[in-house]
Amino acid sequence: MRHHLRVPGPAGPPRTGHLPFADAPGVPDRIEVTSRYLTRGGRPWFPVSGEFHYSRYPAAEWEEELLKMKAGGVTVVASYLIWIHHEETEGRLRFDGDLDLRRFAELCARHGLDFIPRIGPWVHAEVRNGGLPDWVLGRDCVPRTDDPAYLEAVGVWFAAVAEQLRGLDRANGGPIIGIQIENELYDRPGHLLTLKRMAQEAGLSAPLWTSTAWGGVRLPPDELLPLYGGYTETFWTEADGGWPDTCRKHFFFTHQRDDEGIGSDLRPVASVRGSAPDALADRFPWATCELGGGMAVSYHRRPRVDAADIAALGLTKIGCGSVWQGYYMFHGGTNPPGEVTSLQESHETGYPNDLPVLTYDFQAPLGEYGQYRATYDELRLQHLLLADFGHLIAPMESVLPSPGPRGQDDRETLRWAVRGDGRSGFLFVNNHQPHEPLPEHPGTAFTVEFPEGGPLSLPSVPVTVPSGAVFCWPLRLDVGGVRVEWATAQPVCAVDDIGGTVLVLAAVEGIAPELALDEDTVVSLGIPSGEVSYGDGRVLVTGLRPGPGALVEVETVDGGRVGFLVLDAATARTVYRGEVWGAERLVLADCGVVFDRGGIRLHSSVERPSFSVFPAPDEDGGFGTYTLPSERLFAGEATVTLVRAAGAAPEPVRGVQGRVSAPADKYFDAVAAEYRIDLPEGVPPGTLLRVHWSGDVGRAYAGDVLVADQFYSGRVWDIGLDRVPEGVLRVRVLPGFEGADVYVPPGAREGWGEACIERVELVTVRRRAVG
Known about the structure:
This protein is an alpha+beta fold and 771 residues long. The protein has 3 domains: 49-243 and 277-383, TIM Barrel, CATH 3.20.20.80; 396-404 and 412-573, Beta-galactosidase, domain 2 (beta-galactosidase, domain 2), CATH 2.102.20.10; 632-770, Jelly Rolls (Sandwich), CATH 2.60.120. An 8-stranded parallel beta barrel has the order 5-6-7-8-9-10-11-12. Strands 15-16-17-20-21-24-27-26 form an 8-stranded antiparallel β-sheet, with helices on one face.
């Protein structure tokens, strides 16, 4: 089937100067916001932000984790400042150790990462009271309003935050590009403005002042930049509610920015009906701060997300028109133990979800202990695209085919979109969604009409779009003097490494790659495989065998040299870009291949090269490097001994909104199966105990201290041994109660009723090496 779309003429310059979001004049690399996109240093800018909560991670490991985020293509680090973590007891404000906000911000600056503190005071973040300390709620005041008694406490908090961040604003060369006020407050614009004024008066400063914008939000006019979100799954909806429509819609190309589903457990969904948050689209660019990088689990609902789900969500949002990819979470963490009480969101504090006491892993690309997951690879591939081509994509309008899919139940119509500027663009296809596989589309071809240059019809022969395929193809992309009319492979990055440019592309699994080049820009061409044909003013390269050797060499009309390296999909997912052997290189992790500046050729080393995207000073003052991400089993074995078999599962108790509550602590002493785990000597730093288990809830103890916990969802349970005191590790597992109203993913429900550790293994994930 041929799919047709007409790209309108250039939209004209965006409106500038109507929004008060910009650096002060004279600040280098000045940030500004237009009606359609952001600019930095006068150039369109496409930031990628990732959420990482410093107070949920050991300070000694912050630097390593920030560098892993940077290697994954994150350019902006966002973090909630969780008030209750810093001041659980009134008057004892702490910014030491794992709460050292200033050190965290300085580490971001040290490694060229921008920073956005999300200062609250209410942040949600699945933390107790949404982050408000108990003593604040104990005051005679109405929280999250302009009640003077509440604002008095907030003023002290803001002043303390401002003191920690003093001198780290952009005007002083610091990393803070934005500050978020409150979170998910949809109906009190006056209070949001009060909080912004209070933060400014305390001394906080940034070019961007932001607010979450879902749920039919009402914002004080032109005071806060609205940021949007979207998740592949939810932990906060009903156990028997199925896959929410508010998640399903994110796998379609649409121009609707709002997601009324986020935070719907804490506000009436009806509150957004009839509201018009998308009316803001005429004044503000489509920027996001909470695209789901994973999903938490609650006791009553335990969704499981896959890397393919997150990849499809991310690329679809770019096709929809996003100009800022912001992920929540990009890095998981662990709740601190608390001085007085546990610090997770729970029924006990009146919230509708019971979360685990400690784990906030979020199934994120980088896990609770820094685990490296497949999602990281998928998103890094998209972030490399944005690093080199985001300045082109950001100003381009998103155009949708008409007619498109017939509602959210339409699984038969191909989902696609184009972002274009009147003469060139990028074509996006998403043929994946969770839970309900989409069919393949045989005989697919596209015609995209541009006002300048006429229509493009591609590919040369119709292809079958496989089920699960998610990709972006370039249309009339200029590369070093060569115009790529189209390529049926996704741009990864451009590397200036040969006295010219090499465009690296990723083939789509199941679709043969082809390159169509403008004949007027090509003098000669060499290919390692395949065929070359000429016609219609184009040079067509077909039959390429994608891989590290699939390098097409082109001599341009001005005597330059351009290369096109077409990688197979699996190899493309291993591409890193950073410092290798003293110079910027493109690294293909799995096969040890790097570009050599000496010419258009590839080197392969027996040892996988170390690389650095930093550079990072090591303990001796030299520069550290990182070997490429991998996991390896530790040679030693842990011994698992059943100490006590499980008793009868405790009957469920219902809490807030009638949802099933997590079992009380007493059942772990009386009913849970108990295992003793003996660890071998010489376990290296960065080692996980990977537990293959089944049951309802698992808790791990060192002595009597709870060190890890998990709600079962069919996933393995990782326990970071660096955070476990020496001694015997005990793991207690409760069985699930038959018939309890708890959602467990298909295929895992049978194991939920058991209480069993099948086996454990030791896995080393730390990748630091000094060189």
